[in-house]
Amino acid sequence: MRIEFDDGTLLLQNAPEDVPFAEWDDRVDEYRSQAYRYRSLLEWAGTWTDGDEQATLQDGFAHALEDAARTYPDLDLTPALHIEPRDYQQAALDAWIDHDRRGSVVLPTGSGKTFLGLQAIADAGVSTLVVTPTIDLMNQWHATLANAFGDQLTEPVGVLGGGSHDVTAITVTTYDSAYRYVNEYGDQFGLLVVDEEHHLPAPTYRQIPEMMIAPHRLGLTATYERPDGKHELLEDLLGPVVYREDVDELAGEYLSEYETIHMSVDLTADERSEYDEEYQIYRDYVDSHEFDLWKEDGYAEFLKRTSYDPQGRRALIAKQRAERIARTAEKKLDTLDNLSKRHHDDRAIIFTANNDFAYDISQEFIVPCITHQTKTDERTEILERFRSGEYSMLVTSQVLDEGIDVPAANVGIILSGSASKRQYAQRLGRILRPTDDRDPARLYEIITEDTMETYVSQRRREGVTTSADG
Amino acid sequence: MTPLFIDPDEERYRKTARELIQLFEDHLDESKGELEDAIDELTVADTDYKIVQGLEKLLKDECEFEIVATVEPREIRRRLFEKANDRYPIVRQPTLGEDTQKLEVYSAVADDLGLSLEECYRGMYADLDDNKRLVRVGTRTAEQYASDGDGSTSTTTLTGSSDAEYEHTDLTVDWLLTRYNLALAQAVLYDATEMRIRVWDHFGTVFSYVKLFGLMHRIYPIDADGERVTSTDQAAGYEAVLDGPASLFSQSQKYGIRMANFLPALPLCDRWEMTAEILVDETTGETRRFALDQTEDLDSHYSAGDQFDSDVERTLTQKWERANTDWELVREDDVFDLGAEVMIPDFAIKHPDGRRAILEIVGFWTPEYLDAKLKKIRQVEADNFVLAVSERLDCASEEFGGASDRLLWFKTGGHVYDVVELAEQFAVSPHPSD
């Protein structure tokens, strides 16, 4: 029997009739099986070996099997880490190794799941695909992997997704890109790491582990159980839960102290007249239709109308234009001028809500810039240089929200942000650290006076207070 | 399920299409961002904005946007940030304490890289999507759709295709509006789990595209009414069920993209039907049926390929027209299902009394192509399958498997009467239908 990787499945050529895990494919007159049965098929044939061990021949019996499916290489890696694994991380790793390097580890948020992933990759010693739910998380994994293994790899850490398409021995990707391309690359990895694995049981994403031959698998999550019960599928796809640590067994999260300073600017005369004109178009439309915009269904009703009522469409555009004027008010740049004079010796991160504004600032003030458009490897480079001190300022339109990813700054400047509570709290708490005890970290929030921003800012502050209390 | 097709003759759509095409042409050599801003202006108070955006996307797909910069933009900005870091604060309105740091940083980096100040400033972010320049309003080939569609592994090109065939697409109003309707249908197919097609002509073209887009098939010969018949000798057309390798294990919409990419091959046929199962609810697995046929007036932007694979075929056809025989030479009547692919012999030879033979011409081919062809030929199981083989080829009778007795070796063009003789010898009458 010869097994071959075929477009996300395994084609079993000249297979005996008792071959397990296979279906007869009348289209090609051969048996076919799902790619993730690779390891089980090798075990059945008695040709499975793990590392240096000898093939375990059961009762001296083995099916002749030619493995034409595996194309993934072995790797010899040692993570360049400056931190010792914490006890529970070591215990989780040991448990995973004991379960033949298959299975899930359930650890609370902020407990260093990425760190555990690095150790698992080094331990398995095979090429690895890391799958994450968002581009942000993919970027963070990229930064961490490049940091830990970059010097030991012949090619840089690969990125599949967010506009990049480089697949190398260690590659990071998103669920969406993995789903799209897994049939092409499913034979090139020996270890599959799935971050936030509770998303995996969706019918489409499920095909990611199914279409890969990777004999080693690691699932990571803080919330294993799904309300729909579908987490039961994970055992078949990735292996059983091998380790679990509950929230209260870990120390609480560190939130640093910082001082918030609110500043406001006016619109210029031109901006003001344009703002008022657009805002009025929006207001008139809304007032004449009695939507309760402060309620969710009121706003949904407004949006619905914009798809068939030309005036509604115009009102929506007017609202967007007004918001844009307020967000990118010319005088905010004057304020930024003053702040950069005051803090030019500090480490500052500037937040904006839109890409264009971030790029304008990057060009005006010659400051490195990270947006959703920034390619993963450049993003990693910029953050690394900010960490090392080569860069002391950074402008970003992105939520940089995990300790491992974002180097500390002692000055934050919000030029315009989204009103989302969660984003805001994360932006603040995780990034600002005082440089010394006498000089607290500072957060500046610059809003445009007498515009919709004034309201948003208030709502944002209320959000933070609530989450800080709770 | 029916997509909201638009009527390409309706004046308001024609007007929108005209305006859009004009905007693209006016923005040649300008930035993508400027083009997009101009298009957005069209939809400020227009509830057809979804149609405008759809048309915009289709036009963009036919365009090339390029990074215009003499030095790698990332290199420019890396140097700028390095230099700037020692010079902060860099401010917009320098007061007495601060100098014109900004200008100095830009000039220094421009000098280092041998750029003008403006090239340095503009080049810094020339790789942003918005800053790319519209350099060509052209066309794409089906191979390009296949390779960036879902990265299906197939790289096979259509037999007889060449670059010259994919001539420049004129971006006309008619092209754009019919393309829009096709794109709507394709969008529905993204969630398809299975596709059934019936075609009554252009089999070679259709199955080449099935293969090109990495779809698997089950094929059934059908009569003029679409009813299944037992053999290819009785077939007026073919029904094919299309899906992918993993469809064997579970219902999957993984191949929806491939089906969507394949769809434009169907309007190349004169008569065709398509039904697809569309997954509407992931959790319950509920599907709905989506059906289309040639009455929908969809237009294809794919190539139908050359009618003839080789000069030998063309010559034989011409000779046949001048020859005096009852036997008739017709193209592409039979489709042999060989599992992973199909074999479509070049011709069928038909006698008015019902006898019929199938003819494949093995002309002048490269060794690799010959090997692949021989492999296919050996798998064909039909007693009335005959071959005309060029003597110039490096191969022997034995390599033709079961067909080795039914060969005709020819020197240059092949003679009609030799082929007729072969047909007389091996042609069979169609089985009485059972």
UniProtKB/TrEMBL annotation, chain A:
A single MF term (Gene Ontology): 3'-5' DNA helicase activity
Domain annotation Helicase ATP-binding: ranges: 94-242
EC code: 5.6.2.4
Top-level taxon in the UniProt lineage: Archaea
Ranges of residues in domain Helicase C-terminal: 331-470
Swiss-Prot/TrEMBL catalytic activity: ATP + H2O = ADP + phosphate + H(+); Couples ATP hydrolysis with the unwinding of duplex DNA by translocating in the 3'-5' direction
UniProt entry keywords in alphabetical sequence: ATP-binding, Helicase, Hydrolase, Isomerase, Nucleotide-binding
Key word Cell division present: no
EC category: isomerase
Keyword Transport: no
Residue stretches spanning the membrane: none
Pfam families linked to this entry: ERCC3_RAD25_C, ResIII, XPB_DRD
Family: Belongs to the helicase family. RAD25/XPB subfamily.
Identification of the protein by name: DNA 3'-5' helicase
Record organism: Halorubrum californiense DSM 19288
UniProt lineage: Archaea, Methanobacteriati, Methanobacteriota, Stenosarchaea group, Halobacteria
